[in-house]
Amino acid sequence: xxSVTQLDSQVPxxxxxxxxxxxxxxxxxxxxxxxxxxxxxxxxxxxLKYLSGSTLVKGINGFEAEFxxxxxxxxxxxxxxxxxxxxxxxxxxRKNTGGFKTIFGAGTRLFVKA
Amino acid sequence: DxxxxxxxxxxxxxxxxxxxxxxxxxxGDLSVYWYQQSLDQGLQFLIQYYNGxxxxxxxxxxxFSAQQFPDLHSELNLSSLELGDSxxxxxxxxxxxxxxxxQYFGPGTRLTVL
Lengths: 114, 114
Fold this sequence. Notes:
The complex is a heterodimer. Chain A has strands spanning about 5, 10-15, 20, 25, 30-40, 45-50, 55-60, 65-70, 75-80, 85-95, 100-105, 110-114. By secondary structure, chain A is mainly beta. In chain A, a hairpin with a 5-residue loop joins strand 7 and strand 8. Chain A starts with a strand and ends with a strand. The model of chain A has no long low-confidence stretch (mean pLDDT about 95). Chain B is mostly beta strands. In chain B, strands 2, 4, 5, 6, 9, 10 and 11 form a seven-stranded mixed sheet that branches. In chain B, strands 1-3-8-7 form a four-stranded antiparallel sheet, with no helix packed on it. In chain B, strand 4 and strand 5 (about 40-50) form a beta hairpin. In chain B, about 40% of the residues are buried. The model of chain B has no long low-confidence stretch (mean pLDDT about 95). The chains are: A mainly beta, B mainly beta. Chains A and B meet through strand 6, strand 10 and strand 11 of A and strand 5, strand 6 and strand 10 of B.
């Protein structure tokens, strides 16, 4: 079975500061990894995904994430955040064999302060 | 705008009742997914359809059922509703339903069971 742990439920940060949202996963099989963003009263939007290849993945809105297989982590980073980045961020894993199932973390609320 | 539409946006009903949530996927997408987002359980995958056929099942209760019609829209039926069914229900769609597919989420239907 797969599981996802987002280590911080809330992350407050000042505008233009860097941010890292942490995600650890466990799985007995190979997985694909995803980060989604959910703005208030909206559905989820894909930020980026890791399928294979380079462990550094670049996504939309200036976000990037690094896959670390030995530490089973997939942390999300942005070098300089904006007020508009205030949202809930979800890390997710999807196994690459067998039945389709995406497991989501509990979410991290990023709050960007002026 | 993801291109996925869901109706209704809000639904308020009583315990024991039955409701139907509707989803229209993005143009050209063959696969539809349903998710439930609640405060206590987080975001959970319920079920996936591909071109009218059920492809994968997640944590979907027996009181819930879904189907995908020939025009590819999907409906999620929730019956014998309980207070704990109050949640945000998301529909997502993807091109082929494969493991590497990007899923596009609709804005959700907020269900309140009183």
